[in-house]
Amino acid sequence: MNKMMDTLKTLVNIPSPSGMTEEAISYTESELRALGVTTSRLHKGALLATFPGRSTKARLLTAHVDTLGAMVKEILPSGRLRLTQVGGYAWTAIEGENCLIHREEGEAIEGTILIHQSSVHVYKDANSAERSASNIEVRLDEKVHSREEVNALGIEVGDFVSFDPRFKVTSSGYVKSRHLDDKASVAILLDLAKDLVDQDLPHTVHYLISNYEEVGFGGNAGIPEAVVEYVAVDMGALGDGQHSDEYTVSICAKDSSGPYDIGLRRKFTSLCKSYEIDYKVDIYPYYGSDASAAIRAGYDVRHALVGPGIESSHSYERTHTSSMEATRELLYRYVQSTMEEKA
Question: Which residues are tagged catalytic?
Answer without folding.
Answer: 213
